[in-house]
Amino acid sequence: MRILFVNCVNFLESTLPEGIALLSAILKEHGHEVEVFDNAFLKPKNYLMDEEAASKKRWVYGIAFYKATPYNLKDLVASDPEVDIVEKFSEKIREFNPSLIAVSAMSRNYKKSLNLIRKVKPACKIIFGGVHPTLMPEDVLNQKEVDFVCVGEGDRALVELCDCLDKGGDPTKIENLYVKLKQGRSQKIIKNRLGEFVDLDTIPPPDLGIFDARHLFRPFLGNVYKGIFMSTARGCPRGCFYCVNNKLRDLFKGCGKSYLRFQSPKVVARRIESLKNQYGINWIKFSDDTFLSRPLEDIYELRDLLKPLNIMFGCSVDPATVTEEKVKILQEAGCVSMTIGIETGNEAIRKKVLGRYISDSQIKKAIAIIRKQCIKISSFNIIGLPGETKENFFQTIRFNKELEIPDASLYILYPFPGSKIFEDYGASLDKYDYEKTIPGFNLSKMPKEELSYFLSVFNLYLVLPESYWGKIEEAKRSPKLYKDLLKIAQDTVNARQF
Ligand code: B12
Ligand code: SF4
User: Fold this and answer.
1) Average pLDDT for residues 163-176, to the nearest whole number?
2) Ligand 2 contacts CB of residue 418 (under 6 A)
3) Taking 80 as the threshold, does the pLDDT of residue 321 lie above it?
């Protein structure tokens, strides 16, 4: 049968969604036809290009400075026409005529995806899957447009559903599927049981062919590579309060021996080799939650298998798992970049508010080890934490600076469904929303205006010397000064060797 996936994201949110690519590969293996409606590279009507946008908007949220590449994503879309996304979606449905529309959604893009479906009102069946529907299955299935929800892994469930719909069978026994049965005006939700975890060694390489090839654009240290995010494990040993892993671990209790599972090095290498041969992939960001949780023998085996493939890769690591030996072997395997979750420069807040039981000294030690192998380091940070003050914010800046982090990702804390923070704070917030970069609520002790300004200047503080800090403060009131500072920061990064 024909299945149309939907990846409804912001324009130029270019990370290729691995969930869809993987499910597409599995469906094709079973003889189904697959296409995707993906708006990452559809320039929406009235979209402003940089200069025009800069003259309207004062600050650029979450900006980070990377060494300039010969061309960037904006260049790749410069001559694309502006389109109406809803019209494009209708057109795609008319042309492909799917029997099933399969939407993949995180909390951030769930409402956006649902609204798109609502505007077009497709006649075929609709299934939602991904992390948000997994955490809020009833809420999603109660929307009148939705017929099925996949809870957790879709690797078996989706293909079973498609085979079943093809044969006119009964989907109410398919594991991991919630099914809406309509009886006249009333409806009933059937919650099928959750099946055993998928054996990660049986999954194929992701099908990148259904996506716009510009998804593979991957800039790194001034060069452009062809890359994707790829997972080689599922689950995480930790349970930070702002993350969904605690909830997922509870939900899937009994589905396998361990919540954290790894794909064997042989299968990882085989999949990468196939991506390299088929699509010319030469850069991979392993999206596993904590890549170095793998046993040491696995890392040795990965090195032996990946080295001949000559792939550059990055991964996220938990400081507690960083050892000299593991990092050295990974560097030999082709690792060029590692990301560490600092989250906040205040250890007490990190532990008590975020449930991230990692000390400053563990972070410092891990970074020293990684740096010794000349692996580029970046960090994840969160602001807007419950009770956080301006002093705490500057602790985070100072800690990143002390560690000489060249670029950092910064987010405002969102109590996403499934996290402890959501249960403690999100559920009772009246201006709670999942979609916006700057939320309607404010859990910190900083004024909201200040918080959003900090989101725009975090990396300026990291890149520019402390003598500029007064100017960064001043730039809050001067768009011209703000733009000048962005330029100085970008020039500083362009001039760097590493
Ligand atoms: C890579 C990644 C990204 C990438 C790409 C995301 C993407 N579109 O796939 C980028 C960098 C863009 C990203 C951004 C963000 N991310 Co992110 N990301 C991840 C990460 C690390 C891996 C996702 C992945 O590819 N997994 C591998 C694939 C195979 O698994 P999967 O996508 O879950 O798919 C499986 C099932 O879910 C299911 N499935 C998925 N879709 C569908 C659809 C159908 C129809 C069916 C039947 C089944 C199905 O089947 C698949 C195979 O089993 C996860 C953490 C994690 N380990 O999962 C966080 C995660 C998904 N991200 C998260 C967050 C919070 C964000 C951001 C909000 C961060 C921020 N503050 O900006 C943004 C939001 C972006 C947006 N679009 O709105 C949270 C989501 C929490 C939530 N409640 O939604 C996660 C879970 C991290 C965490 N532990 O908290 N992210
Ligand atoms: S935040 Fe990272 S380390 Fe903590 S539970 Fe989530 S994925 Fe694991």
Assistant:
1) 96
2) no
3) yes
